[in-house]
Specification:
Strand 14 (256-262) and strand 15 (268-275) form a beta hairpin. The strands form four sheets. Strands 1, 2, 4, 5, 6, 7, 9 and 10 form an eight-stranded antiparallel beta sheet that branches. The protein has a five-stranded mixed beta sheet with strand order 12-18-17-14-15, with no helix packed on it. Strands 11-13-16 form a three-stranded antiparallel beta sheet, with no helix packed on it. The protein folds into two domains: 33-203, Glucose Permease (Domain IIA) (Distorted Sandwich); 209-328, Immunoglobulin-like. It has 329 residues and is mainly β. It is built from four helices and 18 strands. The chain is globular.
Length: 329
């Protein structure tokens, strides 16, 4: 989840100057970061993004770009200014942790966590939320250029996972950067979307993604996977089991998921296939087999996960990822 706004816009302007946005994060989309949530355009309790789909949640007023896990957060992923401007306000010092029940009830004014607000000409403003504690080194009134580092991706405030939340406002009103100031069609991009052309091309790729996968010697805990564990390139031949896991953004009801593990001799160790019963923003799946005998055969084992999506009005979509692990003494 993401931000409720902390700061109100103060810039005035009779004519909106154009605002062109780059990515708010220094990463490679689809490789080490992923667009996962869009602006919710439904004013009721329903959810609708600019595509007339549900890649959001009720009341979400920005976009979220996630990184792989907590280990990636600790390694450091820079949050950068999406456009040139002046630092309006910032906050640092909040812990990087999942929101507690108490925080959900009483911390609404701090939902952004550690964040930065930047004013831009023409009454525009951008806000960057959930930054890592201690990563902001700015002063109020400081000029920043597009691409300047504002801090690092964190897990502060109302954040269920490490990501940066970017909100865009004009004269204090939320603007969906995929639409701009005018919505020109019922569903789809606006004629004046705010993203630069190269960024827009990247951000309009499908939001579904198999973004993480690996092997474990037992059934892994979801919390451990999302901390960045189970990444070892080698496991012991004495491991009690061999489990292949994968974490996925935005699965849909009816998606077919297939997971296979093959051994050093290319023989299939296990295969699991099922059709998902419901849509979910994030889904983790496992497939594996217990050890037979004293040792696993030495060598390289390969895990492969495939998600197939059949839509009667579109070609079949296919997402896949492969990971390898060595079993040795």
């Amino acid at each position: 989840m993401s931000a409720v706004f902390l700061f109100a816009a103060t810039s005035e302007g009779s004519e909106p100057a154009p605002l062109r946005l780059g990515l708010p994060i220094d990463c490679r989309l689809g490789t080490d970061c992923w667009l996962v949530n869009l602006v919710d355009l439904d004013p009721s309790k329903g959810v609708k993004d600019y595509l007339c789909q549900r890649h959001s949640y009720n009341g979400h007023k920005g976009i979220d770009i996630a990184i792989r896990d907590l280990r990636a957060m600790e390694d450091g992923m820079p949050v950068i200014a999406a456009a040139s401007g002046t630092v309006k306000a910032f906050r640092d010092g909040m812990a990087d942790q999942p929101p507690t029940p108490e925080f959900r009830k009483t911390g609404r004014k701090r939902y952004c966590g550690n964040g930065v607000v930047v004013d831009h000409p023409g009454g525009w403003q951008t806000q960057y939320c959930h930054l890592r504690k201690g990563s902001i080194a700015l002063t109020k009134g400081q000029a920043v250029r597009a691409g300047d580092r504002l801090g690092y991706v964190g897990h502060s405030g109302m954040a269920e996972f490490p990501h940066v939340h970017l909100s865009v406002r004009h004269q204090g009103k939320v603007v969906d950067p995929f639409l701009g100031l005018e919505k020109t069609s019922a569903c789809g991009l606006g004629a004046a979307a705010l993203w630069t052309a190269p960024v827009l091309q990247q951000l309009t790729a499908p939001l579904s993604a198999i973004y993480n996968a690996g092997f474990a010697p037992t059934k892994p805990k979801v919390s451990a996977v999302r901390k960045g564990l189970y990444k070892a390139p080698a496991l012991s031949r004495r491991s009690p089991a061999l489990v292949f896991w994968a974490d996925i953004f935005w699965v849909r009801a009816g998606d077919r998921l297939t997971m296979t593990i093959t051994g050093p001799d290319a023989a299939k160790i296990t295969e699991r296939a099922n059709v998902l019963p419901k849509s979910q923003a994030r889904r983790i799946i496992f497939a594996g087999r217990k050890k037979k005998g004293l040792f696993w055969p030495a060598g390289t084992y390969t895990g492969h996960v495939v998600l197939e999506r059949h839509d009667p009005n579109r070609p079949t979509s296919r997402f896949e990822l492969t990971r390898k692990v060595v079993l040795k003494d």
